[in-house]
Amino acid sequence: MEQLGLALGVILMIMGAGYLFKAFVAIAQGRIWYWTGFLPLTIISPWLIFCPPNERKEKAIAKVKDAIWAPIFFGPVFTIMGVVCLSAGADMANLPGTSTTNRLLTSWTSDKTPVIVFDKKNYKLQFPAAVKTANKITKIIFGTQAGIKEQDKLLPTGG
Questions:
Q1: Tens digit of pLDDT for each residue in 38-80?
Q2: How far apart are CA 47 and CA 52, in angstroms?
Q3: Which residues lie below 8 Å from residue 66, measured CB to CB, with a gap of 6+?
Q4: pTM score of the predicted model
């Protein structure tokens, strides 16, 4: 079982490096690669293609899309997926993956909430910093009162 975890960890780290390369291509060049044809595969194909397609072939199934939304949407998505795959894969391969990522993202301070927590036994990822931040943002947005005085109200009360 340990060898299977090591092999899956190496595969996840390779996928993480691939996603970071795809993030670089999306951010620096504004390009993504996708398959044409069957619509459900076309929608998820940017996450499945890791090798650049041959741009000289007109009838190739894999295409290149140059668009302004590629660096805006796919750049951050591929970066986050690359970091998560690299750190979880390193943990599965018995390397300090999520602890190194947490140290990097919290500026080497140990008293802050960890960003990524990976449970190797159950293969479960948790993001406690994202949950804590979402709760604080929700409290700021929805928990505020306007503090309007009775004399400043535009409509009479009870009517």
A1: 788 888 888 888 887 777 777 778 888 888 888 899 999 999 9
A2: 12
A3: 29, 30, 31
A4: 0.77
